[in-house]
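Incident review: delayed structure delivery

Summary: a single-chain prediction request sat in the queue longer than the usual turnaround. Root cause was a stuck worker, restarted by the on-call engineer. No data loss occurred. The affected request and its eventual output are reproduced below so the record is complete for anyone auditing the incident later.

Affected input:
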Amino acid sequence: MDDVVKTFPVRPGFEEDHNDTVTHSPSPIKNRPAALEPVPKLERPSREEAEAAVRTLLRWAGDDPDREGLRETPRRVVKAYEEFFKGYQETPDEVLSRIFEEVEGYDDLVLVREIPFTSHCEHHVVPFVGKAHIAYYPTGGVVGLSKLARLVDVFAKRLQTQEAMTAQIADAIEKHLNPRGVAVLVEAEHMCMSMRGVLKQGSSTVTVQFSGVFQDDPVQQAHFYTLLRGAR
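Output delivered after worker restart:
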């Protein structure tokens, strides 16, 4: 992966941020491996096996899963996992299947800002929480605005890295809408940095993915950042 980590100079309105890590991918989507390959269908353990695994972890942590406060915890954890990781049961094809073509010839920028999400780091299975901002220039039509929020959740509700999730969102829009350009910016705080390890509360990570006119034209990038600044 040829991403680079650097301080991104054309990010107006974000100067007040601190402890940011900015990951900007300058390479076109078409030059990267496909991010939309189907998740392999693995043999899924039974609910009973999943609950037994939680009991094992509780014992490993040093507690008694049979005490009153923990007796129902394995069941609750498995139920919570169904919600945390429901993205494995969804596909971007389902979310972006309907395109609205009757838009009176509108072909200018569509931007949805401040889409909140929660996800889980695939390295430690702890949360990272943030917001996604998505923009695209339509060609033959637009997708319902709520669908972009749903698309974020399709990928956020899986074990993830922020970099991969940013690329997956952009790739899905590129594939299904064939726009003139896509811009995706994701900013999040990772609990694996604030709750464990280096224990740096307040640090945020920003990842950016451009394609089409956003990739080719710095003016379009600046326009995108200027519109984001308006949300602040």
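Verification: The longest helix spans residues 162-177.
Action items: add queue-age alerting; document worker restart procedure.
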